[in-house]
Amino acid sequence: MRVLLSALVLSLVASAAIGEELFVPGVAQRQGQDGAWWNTEVWISNPSASTGSYAVTFLPAGQPNLDGMREDAEPLDLAPGVTVFRNDLVPQGGVGTLRIVTTPGVVVLARVFNSAGRGSFGGAVPALARSAAIRPGEVAQLIGLRRTPQYRTNVALFNPTPDHGVVRLRLIGQNGEVVGEEAYRLAAGGYVQLDDVLHGFSVSRGEHLRAEVSGTVSFFAQASVIDSRSGSPTLVSPQR
Questions:
Q1: Could you read off the pLDDT of 119-158 as tens digits, one per residue?
Q2: Half-sphere exposure of 96 (CA within 13 A, CB side)
Q3: Is the CA virtual torsion 59, 65, 66, 71 positive or negative?
Q4: Number of C-beta neighbours around residue 200 at 10 A
Q5: Which of 1, 9, 146, 217 could bond 151 through an S-S bridge, CB–CB 3.0 to 4.6 Å?
Q6: Is the pLDDT of residue 118 over 90?
C-alpha cells in the first residue's frame, strides 16, 4: 500500500510540473496589406503564491511543425504575482502560432496590432488550451465578416495535432445563401492565414457574412476584421 501511495504522489507531482500547453494562433511581426506593419506583444502573468514558469516555441506558417510541437523549450521562472511583458517572441518577418507551456495558474494574453495604423490597441488574442480546439466533425461559426472600402477580413487556421488534416470553410450570405466553399490542407502543427479571404470567394463587397468551419482534425479558427481607416483589427472568435 505504501508503494502504491508513493507512486500516486509522484504521479501527481509530475502532472503538476507539466502544467498546460497553450496556443496563440495568428501572431505576426511583418509587413501587411495597405502599408500595415503587424506586431505581437505578449503578457505572461503568475497570479499564484508560488513560483511558476513558462516556455515558448514559435511555429511558423506554411510548414509542418511536428518538431516544434514536441520541443522541450527551456522554461523561464516566473515569480509569484509577477507579469512578464514580451515583444520578442515572433521573429522578424514571421507569421504563425505561439506554443506556450506553463505551470498551473500562469495566464497568457497577446496583443496583435498594426504599428503603422492609427488605432489605439489592436486585437487582444487569448492563449487557448488544446481542449478549446474545434473537434473533428464539429461546425463552428465565424460571424460578422466584411469586405467594403473600409473593411477587409483575414481568417487564421491552426492544427495543434500530429496529424495532417483538411479544414473546410463555407461562406454564407446575410440571407442564408451559400456564397462559396473551399477546403484548406493543414499540415501537422501547421498554420494557414487567409488574407482578405472574402476576395478569394469573389466577394467584391459584402457585409454581415458568416463562415461555417469544420475539419477532419481538431483545429483553431479565428477571423480578424481590419478597419482600413485606422488600420486596427477586431478579433472574431468562433461561435459554437
A1: 878 899 999 999 999 999 999 999 999 999 999 999 999 9
A2: 24
A3: negative
A4: 14
A5: 146
A6: no
Q: Read off the C-alpha cell for 212.
A: 461555417
Secondary-structure percent of the chain, ordered helix, strand, coil, rounded to 5 = 15, 50, 35
pLDDT of residue 177: 97
Grid coordinates belonging to 184: 484548406
Residue 17 has pLDDT above 50, yes or no: no
Predicted confidence (pLDDT) per residue in 38-86, tens digit: 999 999 999 999 999 999 999 999 999 999 999 999 999 999 999 999 9
Q: Alpha-carbon distance 222 to 132, whole Å? A: 12
In degrees to the nearest 10, what's the CA dihedral of 127, 68, 30, 182? -80
**If we measure between CA atoms, which residue out of 240, 95, 64, 219 comes closest to residue 157?**
219
Tell me which residue has cell 500562469: 106
Query: Could you write out the DSSP letters of every residue in 81-106?
Result: T-EEEES-SS-TTEEEEEEEEE-TT-
* Nearest residue to 10 (alpha-carbon basis) of 18, 48, 75, 77: 18
Burial-class residue 56 by CB neighbours within 10 Å (0-12, 13-18, 19+): buried
Phi, psi of 212 (to 5 degrees): -90, 130
pTM, entire model: 0.89
Query: Which fold does the domain 2-236 belong to in CATH?
Result: Hypothetical Protein Tm1070; Chain: A (2.60.290)
- Residues recorded for the chain: 240
